[in-house]
């Protein structure tokens, strides 16, 4: 009843081509942005902003980046952690070696360096696909683990391989309080999510999807698989690299190569599988599931007023989390994004379904 | 979507929102809150559990025996980090604001988490005690105002092991031309001693080889193949959790003489050797002053906590190596509170006040006696300049059934360590625009 596009006539091509053609969707997104930018910083506690939402936003950004590659272009990658590490260490070196480097420019350059690394490690995708490609990208992961641990130049000669982020500053604002960190990450996520959303609706996105669905057919109709695959690697790694720099600078503050190990790559892959392949919204859902749910489960018992030992709680957390993943994938193999679109379709007919 | 599902979903959302909303403001009470960052699960769990038990048992004992610190009751909450940096940061954020005065001190028992919290603690004004681990250069209180690597760092540990080797060889000159290998956990923890060993290698002319082992350390075949090939004269072990037991098993399989293996104090506890048992006989490890044993303070814990069925773990684990170390960690924190109460009054202390207390600790013989750790720890004294307080250690050897303590005490050579600490701390201060404190001035003004 409320969610129906009846009566919304599109008289110009521009109307038809906008991201959210339905007015209710636009209002909804507007409301979400308003809540995220105004209400949450005003009402949220420091703990909520700093310990939950900042990691959620950053990993959601990384998940969006990975989704470009896996969800839209169909190239499975296990090297996401590596590209995050490239972004993080690139930004670190840019900031430390070039004094006066503005943070935003360092982030973009770090993203570009990560994109370059992504293209190099994406080269095998031209010859192999599917699970074999996943194994090839695993090489990127192990290579980055090794190179950042063993090349002292990259860590500015730190004796233990652990490096610390310099002070972060954007347009004269020092990013140190939880609210500022949250807003900074949110702004970057919003801009890049919009960018990806537009990219996948356009020519490039269609090339990726055609390659994903059947690369032989795609090349028959004139899509160059080389360009499609490598551009997907580049765009994906660019976003993932920026997310890596944020994870290191804003969230951890001080990190070692192990912060970007294979666990993180797998976690991000789970995020987009649970959230929904080929969906920006799904990346956000998936990130929420993987980042927030374990902490919620960990605190559930004490929230319910039950006493239990720490080890019992963390074992319970792992077991419940595992069961939930299995249940989720049985109930909806296409991820939460599919649930979201099913709900929207049902809502269109509500309250008179046929 | 039917009504029931919608309701269920809504309830779940509300519950999620409420539980994530963070700690509610608590009424001011006469309590001192300790966040307890532990890991009772995962590959490092076997070593994390005894430490955590010792820590919590000591707090319980102080409440039961003394009714808290000068009438201020101790409260605490555990948070599982699983030795992961990001979960450790989440735990810290979760617990830092609890209690009437916020978190008293943080002790993460993880070098990775320590590095991350070193950046956060000064902003939140919460001191960070890292007894026997953490950043080695943080012993310099002029730069690292909030870090307290008490009882020793990895640089002092590495230094003392080399001293023990010199003693065994019968002179510093005898190390020339020898080969010393470091088998280390490939993380900030394992890499910390490298700088010190490199410095010592230049001094004495021994060959130093680095053999990293990746987390969690259950796969070491390649490492020990290298040991077999290079045949180093000594192997230093810098492992943690399952890595230690695996390294010892591999050493036995490689037929490397175990009496030529020297572990750091985190590689010398019961969980590390118990699976290897008799075949690890002869393996040496550092002891952070004291190893396993029951003294006055442990007896008090048995009497006031375990006899009342209030113990955190099993009774026979009391007095194990890592248990005692958890106990000392808690003791340092509690004594920091007690010392700061002398300055600021007998009420709950803020993190900032406790920081002053930790910087002015003085465990002399009388204090050691009062604390019930006579014969366990040596006197310790912290100043603005020296946040470590003491750098004594002993060696112990695994006898097949239990650890046998050596008599000789070693103290780290400050002539080597001090300049290295100064240099690394100054570099850190420069990178972070920290104005160094003038310790000479602060100490004379008596504040």
TrEMBL record, chain A:
InterPro entries: ABC_transp_permease, LivM-like. The keyword Transmembrane applies. GO terms for molecular function: branched-chain amino acid transmembrane transporter activity. Its main location: membrane. It is found in: Cell membrane. It is a multi-pass membrane protein. Keywords: Cell membrane, Membrane, Transmembrane, Transmembrane helix. The chain crosses the membrane at residues 27-44, 50-69, 76-96, 102-123, 130-149, 181-200, 230-250, 270-297, 309-331. CDD domains: TM_PBP1_LivM_like. It comes from the Bacteria. The keyword Membrane applies. One of its GO terms (cellular component) is plasma membrane. PANTHER family: ABC TRANSPORTER PERMEASE PROTEIN (PTHR30482:SF5), HIGH-AFFINITY BRANCHED-CHAIN AMINO ACID TRANSPORT SYSTEM PERMEASE (PTHR30482). This is Inner-membrane translocator. It comes from Thiomonas intermedia (strain K12).
UniProtKB/TrEMBL annotation, chain B:
Gene3D superfamilies: 3.40.50.2300. Residues 1-27 form the signal peptide. Pfam families: Peripla_BP_6. InterPro entries: Leu-bd, Peripla_BP_I, TAT_signal. Keywords: Signal. It comes from the Bacteria. The keyword Signal applies. Belongs to the leucine-binding protein family. This is Leucine-binding protein domain-containing protein. It comes from Thiomonas intermedia (strain K12).
């Amino acid at each position: 009843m409320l969610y129906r596009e009846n009566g919304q006539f599109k008289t110009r091509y521009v109307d038809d081509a906008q991201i959210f053609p339905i007015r209710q969707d636009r209002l909804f997104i507007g409301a979400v942005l308003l809540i995220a930018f105004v209400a949450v910083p005003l009402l949220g506690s420091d703990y909520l902003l700093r310990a939950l939402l900042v990691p959620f936003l950053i990993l959601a950004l990384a998940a969006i980046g990975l989704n470009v590659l896996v969800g839209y272009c169909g190239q499975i990658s296990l090297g996401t952690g590596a590209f995050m590490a490239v972004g993080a260490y690139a930004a670190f070196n840019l900031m430390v070696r070039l004094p006066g480097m503005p943070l935003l420019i360092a982030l973009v350059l770090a993203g570009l360096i990560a994109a370059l690394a992504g293209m190099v490690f994406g080269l095998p995708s031209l010859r192999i696909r599917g699970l074999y490609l996943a194994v090839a990208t695993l090489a990127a992961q192990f290579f980055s683990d090794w190179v950042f641990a063993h090349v002292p130049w990259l860590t500015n000669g730190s004796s233990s391989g652990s490096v610390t982020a310099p002070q972060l500053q954007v347009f004269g604002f020092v990013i140190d309080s939880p609210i500022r960190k949250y807003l900074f990450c949110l702004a970057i996520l919003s801009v890049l999510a919009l960018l990806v959303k537009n990219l996948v609706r356009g020519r490039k996105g269609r090339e990726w999807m055609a390659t994903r669905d059947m690369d032989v057919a795609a090349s028959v109709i004139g899509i160059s698989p080389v360009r499609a695959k490598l551009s997907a690697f580049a765009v994906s790694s660019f976003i993932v690299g920026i997310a890596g720099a944020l994870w290191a600078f804003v969230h951890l503050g001080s990190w070692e190569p192990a912060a970007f190990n294979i666990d993180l790559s797998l976690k991000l892959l789970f995020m987009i599988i649970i959230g929904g392949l080929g969906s920006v919204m799904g990346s956000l859902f998936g990130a929420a599931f993987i980042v927030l749910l374990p902490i919620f489960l960990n605190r559930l018992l004490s929230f319910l007023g039950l006493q239990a030992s720490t080890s019992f709680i963390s074992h319970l957390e792992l077991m419940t989390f595992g069961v939930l993943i299995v249940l989720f994938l049985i109930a909806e193999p296409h991820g939460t994004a599919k649930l979201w679109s099913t709900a929207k379709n049902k809502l269109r007919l509500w309250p008179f379904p046929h | 979507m039917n009504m029931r599902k919608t309701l269920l979903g809504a309830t779940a959302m509300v519950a999620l929102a409420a539980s994530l909303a963070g700690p509610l403001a608590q009424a001011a009470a006469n309590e001192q809150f300790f966040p307890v960052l532990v890991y009772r699960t995962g590959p490092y769990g076997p070593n994390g559990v005894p430490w955590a038990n010792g820590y919590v048992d000591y707090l319980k004992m102080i409440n039961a025996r003394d009714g808290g610190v000068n009438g201020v009751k101790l409260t605490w909450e555990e948070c599982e980090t699983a030795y992961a940096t990001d979960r450790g940061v989440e735990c810290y954020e979760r617990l830092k604001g609890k209690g009437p005065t916020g978190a008293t001190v943080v002790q993460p028992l993880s070098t990775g988490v320590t590095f991350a919290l070193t950046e956060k603690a000064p902003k939140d004004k919460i001191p960070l005690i890292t007894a026997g681990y953490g950043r080695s250069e943080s012993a310099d209180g002029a730069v690292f105002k909030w870090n307290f690597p008490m009882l020793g760092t990895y640089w002092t540990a590495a230094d003392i092991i080399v001293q023990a080797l010199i003693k065994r060889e019968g002179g510093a000159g005898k190390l020339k031309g020898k080969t010393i290998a470091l088998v280390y956990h490939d993380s900030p923890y394992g890499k910390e001693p490298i700088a010190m060993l490199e410095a010592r290698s230049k001094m004495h002319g021994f060959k130093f080889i680095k053999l990293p082992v990746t987390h969690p350390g259950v796969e070491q075949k390649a490492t020990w193949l290298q040991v077999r090939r290079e045949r180093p004269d000594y192997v230093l072990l810098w492992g943690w959790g399952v890595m230690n037991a695996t390294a010892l098993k591999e050493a036995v399989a490689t037929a490397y003489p175990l009496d030529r293996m020297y572990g750091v104090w985190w590689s010398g506890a019961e969980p590390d050797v118990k699976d290897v048992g008799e075949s690890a006989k002869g393996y040496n490890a550092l002891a952070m002053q004291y190893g396993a044993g029951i003294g006055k303070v442990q007896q008090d814990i048995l009497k006031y906590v375990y006899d009342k069925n209030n113990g955190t773990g099993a009774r026979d684990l009391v007095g194990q190596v890592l248990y005692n170390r958890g106990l000392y960690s808690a003791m340092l924190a509690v004594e920091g509170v007690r010392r700061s109460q002398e300055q600021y009054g007998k009420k709950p202390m803020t993190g900032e006040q406790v920081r002053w207390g930790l910087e002015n600790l003085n465990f002399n013989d009388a204090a050691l006696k009062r604390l019930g750790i006579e014969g366990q720890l040596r006197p310790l004294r912290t100043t603005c300049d020296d946040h470590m307080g003491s750098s004594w250690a002993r060696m112990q050897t695994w006898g097949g059934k239990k650890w046998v303590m050596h008599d000789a005490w070693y103290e780290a050579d400050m002539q080597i360590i001090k300049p290295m600490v100064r240099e690394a701390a100054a570099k850190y201060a420069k990178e972070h625009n920290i104005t160094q404190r003038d310790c000479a001035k602060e100490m004379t003004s008596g504040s």
